[in-house]
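User: Predict the full complex structure for these chains.
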Amino acid sequence: MNQVILRPLAAALALAFALPAMADKQLGDVTVSSGKSVGAKPVLRDEIIATESLGARELEKTGATMLTEALDKRPGISVQTECSICNVRNVVLNNLPGRYTTLLIDGIPIFSSVSTAYGLDSVALGGLERIDISRGAGTSLIAPEALAGSVNIVTRRPTKDEFLANQQLGSHGQWNTDLFGAKAFTGGALTANFNHNQHDTVDADDNKVSEYTGYKRNLGGIGFFVDDIGGFKLRGRLDIVDEKRMGGAMGTGYSGVKADGSGNPFNWSNGKNGSPDPRGWVTPDGSGGDTLSNGQAGTFYNDGLAGMSEIIFTDRKQFVSSATHKLGEGSLRLAVGYAKHKQDSFYEKAVYKADQTQYYLETSTQQPLGATLVTTGVTYRYEDLSSTGTDASGAANDGIDNYKYRTPSAFLQGYHAFLDGVVEVNGSVRYDKHNVFGGITSPRLNVLWNHNHELSSRFAAGRGFRAPTSFFEQDHGILDTTRIVRQVDKAEISDNASYALSYAEDRLAWVASLNYNRVKNMALLDSGATDPVSGLPITLFTSAKKPVSVVGGDLTVTYKLTPQLEATIAGEHFKYRFSEAGTLAFARPETRAYLRLDYESGPWTGMLRGTWTGPMDLAKFYDYANNPRYNFDGTRKMDKSPSFWVADLRGEYRINKQWGVFLGVDNIFDFKQSDKESMLWIDSSGSIDVTQIWGPNRGRFIYGGVKFAL
Amino acid sequence: MGLFALSGGAASAETAPTALDFELSDGSSFVRLSTLPPRITVINFWRSDCPPCLREMPMLAQLARQDKSRFVAIALQRPHETAAAPAGVLDALQPPLQALHGPTEPRGILARFGNPAGALPYTVVLDAQRRACARQIGEVTTRWLDAAIQRCNRT
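Assistant: Here is the predicted structure of the two-chain assembly.
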């Protein structure tokens, strides 16, 4: 009899795990525990969907000050820098392009391609409970555009009054201040957080062009939690972002850099395979109109600081809130999201100002239907973009990438446990009616098979779709063009299948996973096209004709060597199948390996990790066959990048309950790409670009600080 | 609330009448349950951010001091995180109550001890042969524990 009572509870908890939006760990008088990371490692949450969870403690132990730093260097998860000047960074899941990763705040999708370009760096880590990462299309019922997977940031609901302060100072002028305060009251809590983070530009090869972008960032936010208001359990947060970043020219003299439009303030001779002449570089095809100091044909640089600099100011306001209410035997959920994102940017003399508004509305309910738990709901998503700008010549190109997307949708999900809970099945389907790309159906299926208490298998298959936007789909395609010719009439469609086998006992845990991803109609942005009538530069916005496949696997093994010391070893191997240039536009490694040691004893905590990155097929990813790349001295760029290790170390000492101090070194052995190959490159005619990227853009980084908790 | 107890003859799939065991850290060494002297053992799984877990801990410590059975509290957190618990809870986590830390991935041990859903607080009472004879998801009471210990004494 007791077993009959238990089953609905177990089922309800399991489904709550499966829905990120409902992954609130307080469920009445019980707390869902097993899904949460209790240590340093991302562990699979006890969900039917394989989800890796990074708890607040893990985020702290890595020394991360922002989301992109927190997620990097993990099997199947990495952060890719896509521009050496502006350091636009994406979270890469299963080695698929970063735009296929959807960021959710408390289960609400309120980031777009515009806001993730620079916005991911502007997600602070204060006041978080955990970050959940789910890899694979269809992992999120409410974000079908997550073709590679989703990253859900879960805000912590304080249960007592708190004040936390963290002050960090680091090399390269790094300064990070985190403040978090919480006031708990009967039936709720209020929170406030502030983060200031700044970092100088870094130019390791001394050519006066930075590889690491400097920034100054201020983030502020407030949160609220009300346990019962008219029967609703309510939570929400408001965040404000103000960021200024500049790369290329050193320093923070934004106005001066923009005004400096002629002459050569750089030294093109410095750095690996530098030019024979500091004034310019070799033109490999001999077409250069200038003669370098060694007599070779070349191109003298004459565009001033402005011609090699990118300056981006970001102003963002975002609000998310959700409310849940008991409804019959189940629950009702309402959710709302709003974001206003403004980008005021200067790209090598081109001006681009974007203004974006996003809304998200959701109503859903979860009800037991016999022994099946059913979730159904409707959502409405609105996203627009309005831009103004000028190309490098000063010609206006206002609105070249404007769009307005409206997507009402409905979804249905059913969960059922079979064989006394040994096998759990979750199936869902959603239908989206996109105002441009029409109706799209996205099904998914998840199966969890508990072989025994320690060993379980998870199988997932799903489909996702994404409406392409012309903003930053690849490269800085929108920058120096007079108009964009849209030849895209199909959404990007991804089919994904994955299998994960996980084992967890008291000292040993391991997870092995296989992932298959196939993306059709991948968006392509060709900024090198020419208007056949006017002869002016235009950008073609098209879809790939052939699908792209990324297939791989990874294994993570963690073993507790002693009560104080835990070791982790992990590896991943991926294969990339693509034939059209620009589909996978940034180089990825086939193999990576990870080693990590975590120490904790009394007041001491330590972390040592090493990440090995295997060679990347630069010739293939960067399409050397049709567009060979050269160094400033006219030599060819590497066909394959070298393999390399990056090691990080961090230690912390807790003086007492209130005070703690920490010291860390990232990239201990100071490996940086610029020692082997410049991130800058030229084509055969001497046109310069900034995207030859395969390695770290910053060398050794030393930091330390103090923490205070009240 | 998911409150239920198992008598010796009503074992479920989660709590087969086999001897249970664990190997967990007390901060300085690994403790294996099967190497401890046989006696009735109350095992409580908890976290410092679980309010009902914190509420019941002083009561568990008080019962441990009465020496009616062995009491083990397994924190599903790092020591650094449990150190943030209120002073009253940290005081409770002293001998004779034995404080241990759970594995990095707690799913296996929770399922093995009869809690595959992973809800906390969770308390399981083992008889002297380390077989589960009572368990509860959610906060326990002195009355429930006394009854459970008595029941386990009879098995």
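The first helix of chain A runs from residue 2 to 18.
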